[in-house]
Amino acid sequence: MKCSSYYLFFDTISNKTRMAIIESLLRGPKSVNDICGSINEEQSKVSHSLKRMVECNFLDVKREGKQRIYRLNQETVVPILKLVDKHVSKFCNKECMRK
Amino acid sequence: MKCSSYYLFFDTISNKTRMAIIESLLRGPKSVNDICGSINEEQSKVSHSLKRMVECNFLDVKREGKQRIYRLNQETVVPILKLVDKHVSKFCNKECMRK
DNA sequence: ATAACATATGACTTTCTATTCATATGAAAT
DNA sequence: ATTTCATATGAATAGAAAGTCATATGTTAT
């Protein structure tokens, strides 16, 4: 394993806004505005985040009229989240959850 | 899945120094000085990173004389890295690797 | 008790990164 | 062609996190 190449992956996912977007998209594909509504964040902020997540192939986009529909990469992102979930629930206590 | 709680996990792992430490510890437990040598970083920098990684249970420590031996949490961290490896090799091209 | 070695820690500074804001692009409707 | 709606983007700023340095703590040896 050449971990150095994982850096960008983790760097992209380690952000509250982007994590909220992932959480929202776990419930299904959404347009930018729908994401904004569901996580209560401003449009340009969300767009900047989305761009970065697409670059890393966390998400893909399709155009639909004026809208762009973003969808989670189910194949790899979801299984990784499940493992992290396991780690967090098994090893992380309250202090670990600060911030 | 409550992704919001994953934030600290990813935030801790998304750092070049800490990733280098993980990479080094994949090859077996090491003392602080050994880690410093293997990744060519300064001691206090490494210690600060180690502290944070222990808080998240990425690592554990045992004392051995004057030294402290750090060891990777094999149970969850290693499988996660493997999945990320899969994602990176399948979905991430060169541009994705910038920085 | 003191010295030497290994590691940890606090405070300051610097470096990054996210957010914000203003504006651009692009598609559909009139 | 112009307006409206949806989204993207560039540049500037603000904020956070990392690195640095000086020093503290703790362990072993003498």
Q: Can you describe what's shown?
A:
- The structure is a homodimer of 99-residue chains.
- By secondary structure, the first copy, chain A, is an alpha+beta fold.
- Chain A has a domain at 7-73: Orthogonal Bundle (Arc Repressor Mutant, subunit A), CATH 1.10.10.
- Helices cover 55% and strands 14% of the residues of chain A.
- The first copy, chain A, contains five helices and three strands, in the order H-H-E-H-H-E-E-H.
- In chain A, strands 1-3-2 form a three-stranded antiparallel β-sheet.
- In chain A, a hairpin with a 2-residue loop joins strand 2 (59-64) and strand 3.
- The longest helix of chain A has 15 residues, at 77-91.
- Chain A is globular, with a radius of gyration of 14 Å.
- The first copy, chain A, starts with 6 loop residues before the first helix and ends in an 8-residue tail after the last helix.
- At the A-B interface, helix 1, helix 2 and helix 5 of A face helix 1, helix 2 and helix 5 of B.
What is this entry, summarized?
Two copies of one chain form a homodimer. By secondary structure, chain A is α+β, with helices and mostly antiparallel strands. The first copy, chain A, has a domain at 7-73: Winged helix-like DNA-binding domain superfamily/Winged helix DNA-binding domain (Arc Repressor Mutant, subunit A, Orthogonal Bundle).
- Please give the share of residues in helix of chain A: 40-55%
Q: What does the radius of gyration of chain A come to? A: 14 Å
Reported for the largest beta sheet of chain A, the result is: 3 strands, antiparallel
Biggest interface: A-B, 45 and 45 residues
Q: Which CATH architecture of the domain at 7-73 in chain A is right?
A: Orthogonal Bundle
Q: Flag low-confidence runs of chain A.
A: none
Q: What fold name goes in the CATH topology slot of the domain at 7-73 in chain A? A: Arc Repressor Mutant, subunit A
Shape of chain A: globular
Record the strand order, biggest sheet of chain A: 1-3-2
CATH class of the domain at 7-73 in chain A: Mainly Alpha
Distance between the termini of chain A: 31 Å
The count of β-strands of chain A is: 3
